[in-house]
Design goal:
It contains seven helices and 17 strands. The protein is α+β, with helices and mostly antiparallel strands. It folds into two domains: 58 residues, no CATH class; 212 residues, Alpha-Beta Complex (Fumarylacetoacetate hydrolase, domain 2). Strands 1, 2, 3, 4, 5, 6, 7, 9, 10, 12 and 15 form an eleven-stranded mixed sheet that branches. The structure holds zinc ion (ZN). The site of zinc ion (ZN) has 7 residues, from loops. The site of zinc ion has 7 residues, from loops.
Length: 276
């Protein structure tokens, strides 16, 4: 099932057409996309009963963030070896966890306002279906609602300002968490642990890898984070970016107003982000 936020209303595809979830379910489920996690098992069962699945045509300019108001947004730094190496970091022995504050989360219809030196970071984003506290890796995937595509946009100047790094602030400017186009449940994916991940600018490849290259895989991340703090329904985890970011290039390269960034994860979708 693909679940998306069409102009503020939770929607899905049934037989290739857009269906409004509240209307199609006789208001059994809320129209508010964030509330899809209130009774996630029932929503999934309803989707199966009405044949929700596949993909169809939709006006992407009306798409907002599929998970618009997560209580917590976790993000993982240096989770692909080649990305750690391009930044001259050693490969971490434990996950490097920071936050993107939830107010930075936007969807495909949002044009992102750019300060200076803004860098791209395509990432597979995990949405949590139910409260997870001290969950073992072997059980972790049963806590996952699905995947979406994200960009962990980064103001590299702010990120590195001061004697200690400011990762969270530099990565939480308004609009710096584009997500979308939808939340895809794992049954839609043939190989959820190995998806091609690719971003491009005007047809030029910026980043290309596979999610099987993650140093710490999704079950490991859920076990690691949930051992310390409960994950809540509707929380997001940005799982880290592969190599090819702008700051590590010679010379460094950043986004500019007018750029249109396309971020694609196999089977999950294309997230198109415009910059002004
Ligand atoms: Zn990142």
């Amino acid at each position: 099932m693909r679940l998306f936020n069409l102009a503020g209303r939770l929607s899905t595809f049934i037989d290739g057409s857009v269906a409004d979830v509240a209307t199609a379910s006789d208001n059994r489920f809320s129209s508010d996309p964030q509330l899809m996690f209130d009774d996630w098992p029932a929503l999934v069962a309803w989707g199966e009963s009405v044949g929700a699945g596949g993909v169809g045509e939709v006006d992407t300019q009306q798409l907002q963030a599929p998970v618009p108001r997560p209580a917590q947004v976790f993000a993982i730094g240096l989770n692909y070896r080649a990305h750690a190496a391009e930044g001259i970091f050693s490969v971490p022995e434990e996950p490097t966890v920071f936050t993107k504050w939830p107010s930075c989360i936007v969807g495909p219809s949002h044009a992102v306002e750019l300060p200076v030196d803004t860098d791209w970071e395509i990432e597979l984003v995990v949405a949590i279906a139910r409260r997870a506290y001290r969950v073992a890796a072997s059980e972790a995937m049963s806590y996952v609602a699905g995947f979406t595509v994200g960009q962990d946009l980064s103001d590299r100047v702010l990120q590195r300002k001061g004697p200690a790094p400011q990762w969270s602030l530099g990565k939480s400017r308004y609009g710096f968490g584009p997500t979308g186009p939808w939340l895809v449940t794992l049954d839609e994916l043939d190989t959820p642990t190995d998806l091609a991940i690719h971003s491009s600018l005007a047809g030029e490849t910026l980043q290309t890898s596979r999610t099987s290259m993650l140093i710490f895989d999704i079950p490991t991340l859920i076990e690691y984070i949930s051992e310390k703090c409960p994950l809540l329904p509707g929380d997001l985890i940005f799982t880290g970016t592969p190599e090819g970011v702008g700051y590590a290039r010679k010379p460094p390269r950043f986004l500019h107003p007018g750029d249109v960034l396309t971020s694609t994860i196999e089977g999950v979708g294309d997230l198109v982000t415009r910059f002004v």
